[in-house]
C-alpha cells in the first residue's frame, strides 16, 4: 500500500514513543504525516512491514513506498516537518548517523523503562 502522505508507525503502548509522537504532532502544523500505532494491526498490515521490525523501532513509510526505521526515520521525518528541516542537516554530518543509530537502538531497548507506558484502547 502507498499512502498519500508519509506514515509514521510507532509503539502505541510505549509512553516514551507516545511522547515523541505528541512532539511530532505539535511540530506537524500542516498535518503532513499520518501517525499509526503498530498495535492497529488492520491499518498497519497494509504497509507489509513485519511486526517484529515494528516492535523494535518506529518506521516512516513514504508515499513512494520507501521505508525508513529508527534514526534513519527521524532524519527523514525532520525534513518533512515545517520549520524543522534545519535539524535534519545534523544527520548529514559524517559519523552522526551511525552514532544516532546506536543511541536510537539503546533507547528503543529501554524505552519502557524511560517513560511508563499505558495500554491503548
In short:
The chain contains six helices and four strands, in the order E-H-E-H-H-E-E-H-H-H. It has 121 residues and is α+β, with helices and mostly antiparallel strands. Strand 3 (59-61) and strand 4 form a beta hairpin.
Describe this structure in words.
The protein has one domain (7-114). 48% of the residues lie in helices and 12% in strands. It has 6 helices and 4 strands; from the N terminus they run βαβααββααα. Strands 2-1-3-4 form a 4-stranded mixed sheet. The longest helix has 19 residues, at 96-114. The two termini are 25 Å apart.
Beta fraction of the residues? 5-15%
Main β-sheet description: 4 strands, mixed
Provide the spatial order of strands within the biggest beta sheet.
2-1-3-4
Low-confidence stretches: 117-121
Estimated radius of gyration: 14 Å
Shape: globular
Straight-line distance between termini:
25 Å
Q: Total helix count?
A: 6
Topology, pairings included?
Layout: E1 7-10, H1 15-27, E2 34-37, H2 41-45, H3 51-56, E3 59-61, E4 67-69, H4 70-80, H5 85-88, H6 96-114
Parallel strand pairs: 1-2
Antiparallel strand pairs: 1-3, 3-4
Task: For the structure shown, list the relevant keywords.
121 residues, alpha+beta, 4-stranded mixed β-sheet, 12% strand, disordered C terminus
Amino acid at each position: 500500500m502507498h499512502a498519500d502522505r508519509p506514515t509514521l508507525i510507532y509503539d502505541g503502548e510505549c509512553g516514551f514513543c507516545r511522547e515523541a509522537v505528541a512532539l511530532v504532532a505539535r511540530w506537524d502544523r500542516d498535518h503532513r504525516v499520518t501517525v499509526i500505532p503498530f498495535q492497529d494491526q488492520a491499518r498497519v498490515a497494509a504497509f507489509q512491514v513485519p511486526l517484529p521490525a515494528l516492535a523494535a523501532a518506529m518506521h516512516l513509510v513514504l508515499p513512494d513506498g520507501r521505508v525508513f526505521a529508527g534514526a534513519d526515520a527521524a532524519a527523514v521525518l525532520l525534513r518533512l516537518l515545517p520549520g524543522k528541516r534545519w535539524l535534519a542537516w545534523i544527520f548529514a554530518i559524517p559519523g552522526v548517523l551511525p552514532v544516532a543509530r546506536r543511541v536510537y537502538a539503546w533507547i528503543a531497548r529501554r524505552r519502557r523503562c524511560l517513560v511508563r507506558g499505558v495500554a491503548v484502547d
